[in-house]
Design goal:
Elements (H helix, E strand, L loop, with lengths): L11 H8 L3 H6 L8 H17 L3 H7 L6 H14 L1 H16 L7 H13 L3 H8 L6 H13 L3 H15 L3 H14 L3 H15 L4 H13 L3 H14 L4 H14 L4 H10 L4 H20 L1
Length: 294
Amino acid sequence: MAALAAGPDHLFNLRNNFYLGAYQAAINTSDLPNLSPDEAVERDCLVFRSYIALGSYQIVINEIDSSAATPLQAVKLLALYLSGPDYKESAISNLKELLADPAIGNNATLRMIAGTVFTHEQDYNEALKYTHAAGGNLELDALNVQIFLKMHRSDYAERRLKEMQKIDEDHTLTQLATAWQNLAVGGSKIQEAYLIFQDFSEKSQVTSLILNGKAVCCIHMGNFDEAETLLLEALNKDAKDPETLANLVVCCLHLGKPPSRFLSQLRLAHPDHVLVKRASAAEESFDRAVQSVA
């Protein structure tokens, strides 16, 4: 993310679209004039990361060549890492090589990609190693908040969030991180999180990310009918989104509806999703129990 500057921020809308999950809009509005060389690299990174978020890994792999700038090389490694199990080891190995190079190892985008990859690997300590010294980079800070929440350390997440609020309380990433933290804390904070997502839905393009945020708040508050409505709207926008499908499974269970269709979709599209693994483990345990009494 670019440092705050006195001049116009040409990438403001592009970044916001990316942060809020409007990935196609980010791609469609990326032909921006009068960009500096650094801004052009950041623009390209955001566009390629949007393609990655849409699952179009091959476009990124094909279009970024070996002469591209370090941030783009990092983005390409993320696409390779996510493109299939055959590429994971080599992508991580190449990522570590770049991080070990003192000339480029501190590049913010490179560290952001490293944090993302190691979070995927559930190696949270390794992810924190590359993201903890954010130096005022709100995207690294926001990833730090996510990592701490995944580690069930909302106390550390709260500290990082306060640092983000000192930099820019109204920034999209600060608001998103506030909503995540409020969801983790629970209680009366759930309503505050809901209002943040509601505010986004009134000011921005309504995306699966925003709809899922509102739906998770509704689930926490016991408003399962509203949650289901929001999630079905999200499903219309992206029928393969893993969070939408997983949240629909949870929602159906609370409503007493069969979740099998959504669980099957999740299994097909995202066989490594944590909910799929838990469901498979439960089924195997049940089968073993049945066989033991047969």
